[in-house]
Design brief:
CATH class of one domain: Alpha Beta
Organism: Ferroplasma acidiphilum
Largest sheet: 8 strands, mixed
Main location: cytoplasm
Shape: globular
Strand content: 25-35%
GO biological process, one term: threonyl-tRNA aminoacylation
Mean pLDDT: 94
Low-confidence stretches: none
Catalytic activity: tRNA(Thr) + L-threonine + ATP = L-threonyl-tRNA(Thr) + AMP + diphosphate + H(+)
GO molecular function: aminoacyl-tRNA deacylase activity; ATP binding; metal ion binding; threonine-tRNA ligase activity; tRNA binding
CATH architecture of one domain: 2-Layer Sandwich
Structural class: alpha+beta
Number of helices: 18
Distance between the termini: 40 Å
Radius of gyration: 29 Å
Oligomer: single chain
CATH topology of one domain: Threonyl-tRNA Synthetase, Chain A, domain 2
CATH superfamily of one domain: Threonyl-trna Synthetase, Chain A, domain 2
């Protein structure tokens, strides 16, 4: 795990009072008792504090969030009638939604000038705690903020607002200490959306931007972004004829053309090979289920607004699956398992469906229908470590094979023990001794047997699972960052991030421990004492979704995929009509060897044919003429336009080896 520098602080002392000298603007917040604080906050107790660097992932997110508020400040200064709605941050960008008169990218210089003016003023960003009724008064002019306040602050409770000069924002924070910490920013684009993503609600203008601690990092990002636009998977997909979308008949649903299906199937087949080696058994589950299963799993209540739900003429209510796990659970429940049978591990290339809003869909990275390389391991608690080790060994090898990258980072998301009510926990009743599981934030905090509220928390299940994940990471000497409070309510998890050729980090693989589903579906196995014991589920996805992973692949390689993934592996061109027969014979031999090839015997010059096929990104172009016919050879041109002559049988062997070993680089 990455080492942390900790500092001692006393109760009532401001965090900024103990910030190391000469730190400048490099420190933006503090972590104390697993919670992030503004530097202007005071410590609620004695303890050790870790300072958040602006260049850290958390620091960058705080910087982006603060810059979004800087944008909102500039907007209301320039356009007094504008009503700010809400902001959001991704890895290196932010957006803010406004109800305001139309603006365009031509207005960006004016807005950026105002933002820079606010930065130069170095305005302190102050946090203020107020009761809900006073916060409502502060934002009485803005119906969107009133909605947010009422949704997030219970009656009679307090919350925070942030004040920077004449601008106020309802927000939990934290923020950079002042606007002067915002070193470099750029507005990127603009789009239209609707309030809460509902087409029937108010129109909104969404402004996107980015921010970095300095101009050098901003410049590097803008260069990467420019290259990313050139490599947009939607553009590459069209050029290579990989997939299409029909927004009239099936919006958000990808249709794979033959070339795209080749890539998809190669990835699926590779995952099947790895699953078989690792003891994951292939299963298949239906696409539609009665809604009773989604209510039992909890997906109905969480995803209802994002699910495709329908009612049959007989009155039965169904839903297309947003997740594969309930189907795998149904398969597990068909049998009774002994502790000796565990673990039971199912995998499936399972297609799921989620109703993404029309303004949020984006090619293969955000479709409404997508396929997950899903896996669910039903394990004993003492098997969590070994199964995690197995997965953590597979994951980097897969991405090194496919992407040729070893730049991988790991996040460990754990519970916040200061707020056990937010998690599914084991409890023991002090009054009657009943043991049960409960998520106090969503259920009545009392014993189901006797009604007593005198309950003792049992962290052992969480501690065991978290320690097994942590120990697995450390056993393999993997550097990771631990995020307290970021665990799902049903268990801790490991997220794996991969860096692509453009330096972008993508969160792909997930190893998620789940205590909730086994309890909700009353799953069990029989232990050596002939007693029913609750298993733990490990949710596992390595690619994530095939659609998103294919998009990443296309942009990472700019469409020039490794040979084993390339739809068109060899393209054969005769120099004239006299050699059409030889070219056709070569094509036949290649296809008999399982190599995806095509022959071009159409009219036209060689240079014209090569130019036209470039967008399809074939791995090799084979040119044949008099010399090649005489020598039973081919003149091979690679993607760098280097040419070399090979004997036909020799080159087929070279290609076969390159495919079999899944090589990233071409043979020459």
């Amino acid at each position: 795990m990455n080492s942390k520098q900790l500092f001692n602080i006393h109760k009532g002392e401001q965090f900024q009072e103990i910030v190391p000298e000469k730190s400048g603007h490099s420190i933006v917040a503090a972590r104390f008792l697993n919670k992030l604080y503004d530097l202007s906050d005071v410590a609620p107790d004695n303890g050790e504090v870790e300072f958040i660097q602006i260049n850290s992932p958390e620091g960058e997110k705080i910087l982006l969030h603060s810059t979004a508020h800087l944008l909102a400040n500039a907007i209301v200064d320039l356009y007094p009638d504008a009503l700010p709605n809400t902001s959001n941050e991704s890895e290196d960008t932010f957006y803010y939604d406004f109800n305001m008169k139309p603006v365009s990218i031509e207005d960006f210089p004016l807005i950026e000038e105002k933002m820079q003016e606010l930065v130069q003023a170095n305005i302190p960003i102050m946090r203020k705690i107020l009761p809900k009724n006073e916060i409502l008064k502060e934002f009485s002019y803005n119906k969107y903020k009133l909605d947010k306040i009422n949704e997030n602050v219970p009656d009679g409770e307090n919350s925070s607002i942030y004040i920077q000069g004449n601008y106020k924002e309802f927000c939990r924070g934290p923020h950079v200490p002042s606007t002067g910490y915002i070193g470099a920013f750029k507005l990127l684009s603009i789009s239209s959306t609707n309030y809460e993503g509902d087409v029937n609600k108010d129109k909104m203008i969404r402004i996107y931007g980015t921010a970095f601690p300095d101009k050098k990092q901003l410049k590097a990002f803008l260069l990467r972004r420019e290259e990313a636009i050139k490599r947009d998977h939607r553009k590459i997909g069209q050029e290579m004829d990989l997939f299409t979308f029909d927004n009239e008949r099936a919006p958000g649903m990808p249709f794979y053309a033959p070339n795209g299906a080749i890539i998809r199937n190669e990835l699926i087949n590779y995952m099947k090979e790895l699953n078989e080696k690792s003891g994951w058994e292939e299963v298949w589950t239906a696409h539609a289920f009665k809604d009773i299963i989604w209510k039992q799993s909890g997906h109905y209540y969480k995803y209802k607004d994002d699910m495709f739900l329908f009612t049959l003429p007989n009155g039965d209510n169904y839903g297309l699956k947003p997740m594969n796990c309930p189907g795998h659970i149904a398969i597990f429940q068909r049998s009774v398992y002994s502790y000796r049978d565990m673990p039971v591990k199912y995998s499936e290339a399972g297609t799921v469906y989620r109703y993404e809003k029309s303004g949020e869909m984006g090619g293969l990275t955000r479709p409404r229908g997508f396929t997950i390389d899903d896996g669910h391991g039903f394990v004993r608690e003492d098997q969590i470590f070994d199964e995690t080790i197995s997965l953590l060994k597979i994951i980097p090898s897969i991405f090194k094979t496919i992407l040729g990258t070893e730049e991988i980072t790991y996040d460990l998301s754990v519970m916040d023990k200061q707020h056990p009510e937010n998690y599914l926990m084991s409890y023991e009743c002090s009054s009657c001794g009943e043991k049960f599981m409960l998520r106090a934030a969503s259920q009545e905090y009392k014993c189901p047997a006797c009604g007593s509220e005198n309950l003792n928390s049992d962290f052992s299940m969480w501690d065991n699972a978290t320690e097994n994940l942590r120990r697995a990471l450390e056993e393999l000497k993997l550097k990771y960052t631990e995020y307290p409070g970021e665990a799902a309510f049903y268990g801790p998890k490991i997220d794996v991030h991969i860096k692509d050729a453009l330096g972008r980090l993508w969160q792909l693989s997930t190893i998620q421990i789940d205590f909730f589903m086994p309890a909700n579906f009353d799953l069990y196995y029989i232990d050596k004492n002939d007693t029913k014991v609750r298993p733990v589920i490990i949710h596992r996805a390595i690619y994530g979704s095939y659609e998103r992973f294919i998009a990443i692949l296309l942009e990472h390689f700019n469409g020039k995929l490794p040979l084993w993934l390339t739809p068109l592996q060899a393209y054969i061109i005769p120099v004239s009509e006299a050699y059409n027969e030889y070219a056709t014979e070569i094509n036949k031999k290649l296809r008999e060897k399982g190599i995806r090839s095509k022959v071009d015997i159409s009219d036209g010059t060689i240079s014209k044919k090569i130019k036209l096929i470039r967008t399809m990104r074939p791995s090799y172009i084979l040119v044949v003429g008099e010399k090649e016919l005489a020598n039973n050879s081919v003149s091979v041109r690679n993607r760098k336009d280097k040419t070399r002559e090979y004997g036909m049988d020799e080159f087929m062997g070279i290609m076969a080896e390159e495919i079999r070993e899944k090589k990233i680089e071409q043979a020459f």
